[in-house]
Specification:
By secondary structure, this protein is an alpha/beta fold. The protein is built from ten helices and eight strands. The protein has an eight-stranded parallel β-barrel, surrounded by seven helices. The radius of gyration is 16 Å and the shape is globular.
Length: 252
């Protein structure tokens, strides 16, 4: 099974090189918007484009992915909220297991249903330990998952959850405060988790300012994901990307 995207993440992590990903919700874009986002992403040297959401009510996932691919060569990675969110036109898929919750459907149940389609898609599959962190407001992901998020001040729960995910074989740990979060995940929690795992750490949710993206990277995040803030102001792509990529390398 191909591992081009994952190997690039591991290589960057070894160097201390941080990555920036823009999250695109298929429900909130049209052709013109996608072209604008692709153009801005290319000029800002965005590393990855994530496509998906907790609720995808439109049925044009394939069209969205194909439209992105026709306007840039940035890797497109699916961030699926349900097993039906699979497009063979993408480059990879985050196979999410909600390890912060106790809903068996999102730990393994939906994976059993989706496994044949995912395997036959030809996509690069990246097993991901998905952790929802309390962002100070109810979010779509917490509602849909029917699982309580990890409290924002419980660093020890977060780090033990991440460690368990890694030991269970997850290739990535993704900490998410969720779309619409009032508060982004604290640098203290990110640092606690990053210091106890070796796999790449992805952080998203509630990141509205380039300075916060930079501080999260300094704390130990390997990939920063921003979606909601960019939906409101696409010009933030340049500033966010510049902030993430300005973090000094460990091994230049």
């Amino acid at each position: 099974m191909k591992q081009i995207i994952y190997e690039s993440l591991l290589t960057k992590k070894r160097k201390g090189q941080k990555s920036f990903a823009v999250l695109i919700d298929p429900d909130n874009v049209n052709a013109k918007r996608l072209e604008e986002l692709a153009r801005l992403a290319v000029s800002a040297e965005v590393d990855y484009l994530l496509v998906g959401g907790s609720l995808v009510i439109s049925n044009h996932l394939d069209e969205v992915v194909q439209h992105i691919r026709s306007h840039c060569s940035i890797p497109v990675i699916l961030f699926p909220g349900t097993p039906s969110q699979v497009s063979r036109y993408a480059d990879g898929l985050l196979y999410l297991s909600l390890i912060s919750g106790r809903n068996p459907e999102l730990l393994i149940g939906q994976h059993v249903i989706s496994a044949p389609a995912v395997r036959s898609s030809g996509l690069e599959i990246i097993s991901t330990g998905y952790m929802v962190i309390d962002g100070g407001a109810p979010t779509t992901v917490s509602y849909i998952s029917n699982a309580s998020p990890i409290p924002a001040d419980k660093n020890e729960i977060a780090l033990c959850t991440a460690m368990a995910g890694e030991m269970l074989g997850m290739k990535l740990i993704y900490m998410d405060a969720g779309s619409g979060a009032r508060h982004a995940i604290s640098e203290e929690m990110i640092a606690a988790v990053a210091s106890h795992i070796e796999v790449p750490l992805v952080v998203g949710g509630g990141i509205r300012e380039p300075e916060k993206a930079y501080l999260n990277c300094k704390a130990g995040a390997d990939v920063i994901v921003v979606g909601n803030a960019i939906e409101k102001d696409a010009s933030l792509i340049r500033e966010m990307s510049a902030a993430v990529h300005s973090v000094p390398l460990l091994h230049p």
